[in-house]
Amino acid sequence: MDRMWSYRRPASVRDVLEDLRTEREIAYTTVMTVMDKLHTKGLLKREPVGRAYVYEPIATKEAYTAELMRHALAGSGNQAATLVHFLERLTPEEATALEAALQVVPPGSRRG
Q1: pLDDT band at residue 91, thresholds of 50, 70 and 90?
Q2: pLDDT at 111 over 90
Q3: How far apart are CA 32 and CA 53, in angstroms?
Q4: Domain limits at 34?
Q5: Are the C-beta atoms of 13 and 30 separated by less than 8 Å?
C-alpha cells in the first residue's frame, strides 16, 4: 500500500512490478496476486484498461491510518484509559501535531 500511496496516481501491476524490481527480483504473478487481494479487501479500486487493470487506493494513507486508530480505540474496552495511555506516550512532535489537529477539528465537533 505504501507504494500505491506514493504514486498519487493509478498504477498497473506492471508499473508496480518495475518499481519493485529496482530493489529486488519479484514475479509478475506475485505483484498481481497482492494487488488483487488488496482490491478484494477494499483497499484498492481498479478499472480495466485494455487487457489489464489500473489500481488506485480507496483512501489516503492518513484516512486509512485514522480508521485503524478508531478500530483500536473501539476494541479497547476502556476508551478513556486507552486515550490516557496514548497521550502519556506522545513525543513532543506528536503532541504538537495533536494540538494543531484539535485547532482544525475541535473536540465535540463531528464529521459525518
Answers
A1: very high
A2: no
A3: 10
A4: 1-57
A5: no
pTM, 2 dp: 0.76
Total domain count, the chain: 2
Check whether residue 96 and residue 81 sit in a common domain: yes
**Do 9 and 19 form a contact (C-beta atoms < 8 A)?**
no
**What gap in Å lies between CA 66 and CA 21, rounded to an integer?**
31
Burial 61-84 (b: 16+ CB within 10 A, else e): eeeeeeeeeeeeeeeeeeeeeeee
Please give the helix or strand (H or E) that residue 101 lies within, else none.
helix 92-104
- 97's enclosing H/E stretch is helix 92-104
Residue 112 within a domain: no
- Structural domain contains residue 77: yes
Q: Which three cell numbers stand for residue 103?
A: 485547532
Partners of 86 in beta bridges: none
